């Protein structure tokens, strides 16, 4: 029994590629997967930092390697996948599309260059890497793709229009690839974190408007604090375990606790939110009044004198004639 449980909750000897593993969420994911027995390759643009991280992991006894890659560049993605293929004998169990960036600006301020940088790094690279990884994932007989999406891909957040679009696209891609590639024994899921303490968020919080709004929104979550990277990596590991063998095409999972509130006019509200009670209070009162009016009308019909309600065709015609003579022939009642 314990052996069986061990296999279902283990990544022993599985092979994994995690993009952007030198910082934040990616760093935690590399460590988590390797700690569960996976052999992991990662990439980033900063070579010195990458080498330092790889040394750290090796000193912990984890099987991790790394190579420099700028995921914005198509040719570098192809080179990365060739490296992965030769390292893992053409078989890959796990691809974590984690690397991503955000530039906080109002929609009117974004340039074409901003648009291209965010969309290429966050979405195009993840799409292309998934295509490149497909034959390797299929060859493993047990493939997994995890997209690191965002709550911003589901609800509206301040100064995030392009970033949110890149993550929303990722959520749609998750469902489509899950359906297309299930026959190849590849599961596809995405994890959508809310605010996690990482260098990316430290950078965003330099903008005082973002910081103020983010703090306000954090207070609306059921657990009102920023999360730690290892609270995301545990969800990623779960999705990769054989124990999650029937989980595919999911993009909410257990990670999207912010969005359990309802999205009204672009704002997410939780039951304890003051606006929730106000909006629902007002809507409830109007519904109650409307039902009351309909009830009163129905009841009043029961008490209308029979003479006022024509019961047959003759009565109806008589009533019409009376009406005509009163209103049309003698409008002033003269
Ligand atoms: N932190 C959050 O609150 C949060 C919330 C929701 C979703 N997410 C998502 O989670 C993912 C990770 O975010 P994070 O907060 O951990 O970010 P982070 O701390 O900034 O780390 C990003 C990692 O990606 C690498 N990277 C960035 N651009 C790259 C490129 N063009 N080519 C190769 N590597 C690149 C970075 O290394 P180099 O800079 O050296 O290349 C770094 O290792 C992102 O997709 C982000 O959108 C984060």
TrEMBL record:
GO terms for molecular function: oxidoreductase activity. Pfam families: adh_short. Keywords: Membrane, NADP, Oxidoreductase, Transmembrane, Transmembrane helix. It catalyses: 21-O-acetyl-isomeliandiol + A = (21S)-21-acetoxyl-apo-melianone + AH2. The chain crosses the membrane at residues 145-165, 286-304. PROSITE patterns: ADH_SHORT. It comes from the Eukaryota. InterPro entries: NAD(P)-bd_dom_sf, Sc_DH/Rdtase_CS, SDR_fam, TR. Belongs to the short-chain dehydrogenases/reductases (SDR) family. SDR65C subfamily. This is (21S)-21-acetoxyl-apo-melianone synthase SDR. It comes from Citrus x changshan-huyou.
